[in-house]
Amino acid sequence: MAVTSILVLVSLGVLLWQLLKKSRSDIFLQRFSGPRKLPFLGNAWFIARPTERLKNLQILQQEYGNRVGMTLGSQKMLTVFHPDDVAKMLTVFHPDDVAKVLASKEMNRSWFLELLFTDWLGSTCLLTAKGKEYLRMRKMYLPMFSYIHSENLELNFNTHSKTLLSVLKKEAGKGAAVEVRWLLTLCTLDNISQYFLGKSMGCLTKFDNEYPAAVHNETKLINQRIYLPWLWPKVCWNISSIGKKEKVIREYLQDFMDKVVQERKSEIFTNTPDISVEQMKDKFQKTGLDYSLSEQLGGNTEFTDRYIRDLMNSCILAGHDTVAAGLTFALYLLAANPKEQAKLHAELDEVFGNDRDRNVESSDLTKLKFLECCIKETERLYPPIPIMPRTSENDFELDKNCVVPKGVDIVVSPWVTHRLPEFFPEPEEFRPSRFFPENCTGRHPYAYFAFSAGVRICMGIKIAIVLEKIILADIFRNFTVELEDPTLKVVPVGDIVVFPRDGLKVKLNPR
Ligand code: HEM
């Protein structure tokens, strides 16, 4: 009995000491002012609500400056759930700091990404890989993203864009405003799956298709996990009702992609069982899937069927929601700014004349300069990935007086940096002319990083811009777009990818 009491007392003593002791990270973060910390919750309350998160991040910068220390929850409590020194972060907003963080090879994506994506996308996923392993993988995947790799890129993107257009025409013909956010997501899923798999998922044409809803629900559920720290440990997640729901959807998505991979393999190897790697490279390799299968055929043991499945799921995830967000906000901003829309109409008329139907070709793409500025300006105001947390492998020197201890995440946010008035005067105004070449001269190269920058810059930038240009050129050639409610201010939800909380309803008036 006495022994048990002593053990209990010692354990309580150790726990109390753990709770009260200050780590290097605590001492470091004390140097920075920031919002009030609540017991147990730390600063989590400040960014917990998805609809307030982005606005609050901006308030952080305005009230406390360009470097702000934050603790998500009582870190001591959270380490019970996670072995590393998690949940402490330094948010940095000035482009000088952003440049240091994004350009550094020592910086990995935060442990958060690993927590969220490993089950779905595998442990060797590009989104979660670290250090040298990450750099090696990125190099290996590069051919899948090269623009020339996919000869039929524009043709395919045009095809799906035309399908969207016919759906929009039909919906607009009913006389009411059209909810476009989901339609744009379906269209980008079709395009991006076409790009990587060589076949569309038929999301726009088959409305009973379960795949898009599954992708959407999967991302929604894993987003929720971020803010439920008691569900971070795998075992707690697995037994929770939300974790169980996620497992069903995840397995559906994995089985779905397994089937796609197997179908493609049998398509190739049934028709040409003795195909050599060289023949395959000549004959196929128009898509990421074929590229991966040719690596497998060539003896690259890393490219197992499962690995290819995870890779394809990762690419489709990275590519579709971001573009859908970009398109949704472009429609919103152009509808809310009729003068800018009129300039876009003028450019489209100059390039296409009265032709509302013909495909957008390579030669057109280079002429659509104002449209490109509209896309960039949209992604300045609504960067699809608004927050990027990083974890350093070692202590990280921002400057001589500010060495961030290992274990403190550094967070950069294009949402906030893009709104710093010294780089973008009157930042809330939608002004595509900010991106005219003459107006970009002298701007800090890291003042704008919607596609990230440096070591982990988005691999799909070119593809994203081409796809957005084709879809927006088709929509604005055919319609004048108006907000259903002209006073509407969308409420952005700051999840991994930002979206308007209530979708987007627009009136599409034929031109
Ligand atoms: C408007 C569209 C897009 C935006 C704004 C965007 C933005 C980004 C950003 C910010 C990152 C880096 C995230 C981080 O470092 O934490 C990223 C990574 C990535 N993006 Fe995009 N993206 C877009 C479209 C695409 C498309 C269409 C594809 C594929 C075709 C794609 C493929 C990828 C991949 C594979 C990565 C991971 C790169 C790596 O880890 O090395 N993205 N994207």
Layout: helices, strands, pairs:
Elements: H1 2-20, H2 24-29, H3 44-47, H4 50-64, E1 67-71, H5 75-81, E2 88-92, H6 95-103, E3 107-109, H7 111-121, H8 131-141, H9 153-173, E4 178-179, H10 181-197, H11 210-226, H12 234-239, H13 241-271, H14 277-283, H15 288-297, H16 305-336, H17 338-352, H18 362-367, H19 369-381, E5 388-392, E6 396-399, E7 402-404, E8 409-412, H20 414-417, H21 437-440, H22 461-478, E9 479-483, E10 492-494, E11 498-500, E12 505-510
Parallel strand pairs: 2-8
Antiparallel strand pairs: 1-2, 3-5, 4-12, 5-8, 6-7, 9-12, 10-11
The structure holds protoporphyrin IX containing FE (HEM).
End-to-end gap: 87 Å
CATH superfamily: Cytochrome P450
CATH architecture: Orthogonal Bundle
Strand order of the largest sheet: 1-2-8-5-3
Return the CATH topology.
Cytochrome p450
Share in helix: 55-70%
What compounds sit in this structure?
protoporphyrin IX containing FE
Q: What's the structural domain tally? A: 1
Provide mean pLDDT, rounded. 88
In percent terms, what proportion of residues is strand? 5-15%
Subcellular location: Endoplasmic reticulum membrane; Microsome membrane
Organism: Allacma fusca
GO molecular function, one term: oxidoreductase activity, acting on paired donors, with incorporation or reduction of molecular oxygen
Cofactor: heme
Molecular structure report:
With 511 residues, the protein is an alpha+beta fold. The protein has one domain: Cytochrome p450. The chain is built from 22 helices and 12 strands. It has helices at residues 2-20, 24-29, 44-47, 50-64, 75-81, 95-103, 111-121, 131-141, 153-173, 181-197, 210-226, 234-239, 241-271, 277-283, 288-297, 305-336, 338-352, 362-367, 369-381, 414-417, 437-440, 461-478, and strands at 67-71, 88-92, 107-109, 178-179, 388-392, 396-399, 402-404, 409-412, 479-483, 492-494, 498-500, 505-510. It has a 5-stranded mixed beta sheet with strand order 1-2-8-5-3, with helices on both faces. A 3-stranded antiparallel beta sheet has the order 4-12-9. Strands 6-7 form a two-stranded antiparallel sheet. A hairpin with a 2-residue loop joins β6 (396-399) and β7 (402-404). The longest helix has 32 residues, at 305-336. The chain is globular. The protein starts with a helix and ends with a strand. Bound molecules: protoporphyrin IX containing FE. Residues 109, 126-127, 138, 192, 315, 318-319, 322-323, 326, 379, 384-385, 388, 450-452, 456, 458-460, 463-464 line the site of protoporphyrin IX containing FE (HEM).
